[in-house]
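Quick one, tokens below. Sequence please?
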């Protein structure tokens, strides 16, 4: 990472992994609102390491507004290609040019609305790593899949091409478990439901020797439910949507 390292204090319950709270702004914001939000985050020194993933046009604004602070920034998607005739796409080296530390790959909104396959998500993670970015690989089951008892099998299927990149690569990633039914619905997974899946992800990571990486939970995380989620042994932080747009709420999640 080429941004200032954060004063890392909070760790998860048992693994000693640094707590990480990343805001995913999705397609929200404008120059004026972003300026106020970033200015409110800039002086913060929460217990968790914090980051924001902003829409592409605002990367330069985030880079400028957060320069020299402990808050790091990133993007919400990346091309699997490094350059070429891919109209509308943004490459990992371009994100690196802006000083990005992070990039989300495989968010469920991209998988469902843009037809991103498990293999494409792994290819994007690989491209991010090659440019020196940390990919945050998102996985999660739909409500129908959960109701069919398929949650863990779906996560394992989504992870398979990522794990196939090998331990050396996977050790440089972050995984985010975001059950689709909990995103933007106000219906958070219970800490126990989330922990069950996180433990399965940890086991899959352990299987290739990458069990030490951070696994974040996402889906209707708020200040009111963050502490109980973070008390679980395999939940190392959060990927936050709506609540990341309100500085005070976001910082209370990371407190
Ligand atoms: P919400 O926190 O708004 O449910 O969104 C979660 C999410 O999709 C973060 O990537």
């Amino acid at each position: 990472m080429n941004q200032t390292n954060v004063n890392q204090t909070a760790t998860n319950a048992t693994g000693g992994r640094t707590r990480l709270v990343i805001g995913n702004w999705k397609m929200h914001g404008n120059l004026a609102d972003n300026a106020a939000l970033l200015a409110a985050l800039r002086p913060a020194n929460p217990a968790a390491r914090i980051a924001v993933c902003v829409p592409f046009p605002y990367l330069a604004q985030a880079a400028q507004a957060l320069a020299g602070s402990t808050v790091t920034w990133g993007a919400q998607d990346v091309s699997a290609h490094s350059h070429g005739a891919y109209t509308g796409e943004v490459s990992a080296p371009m994100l690196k040019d802006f000083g990005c530390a992070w990039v989300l790959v495989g968010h469920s909104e991209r998988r469902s609305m843009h037809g991103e396959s498990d293999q494409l998500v792994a290819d994007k993670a690989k491209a991010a790593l090659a440019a020196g970015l940390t990919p945050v690989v998102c996985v999660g089951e739909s409500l129908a899949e959960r109701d069919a008892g398929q949650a863990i099998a779906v996560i394992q299927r989504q992870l398979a091409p990522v794990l196939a990149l090998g331990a050396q690569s996977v050790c440089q990633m972050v995984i985010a478990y975001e059950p689709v039914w909990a995103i933007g619905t106000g219906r958070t997974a219970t800490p126990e439901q989330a922990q069950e899946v996180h433990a399965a992800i940890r086991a899959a990571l352990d299987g290739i020797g990458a069990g030490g990486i951070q696994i974040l939970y996402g889906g209707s995380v708020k200040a009111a439910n963050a502490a109980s989620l973070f008390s679980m042994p395999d939940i190392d932080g959060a990927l936050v949507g709506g609540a990341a747009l309100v500085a005070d709420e976001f910082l209370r999640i990371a407190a």
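Residues 26-245 form a domain with the TIM Barrel fold (CATH 3.20.20.70). The chain has a mean pLDDT of 94.
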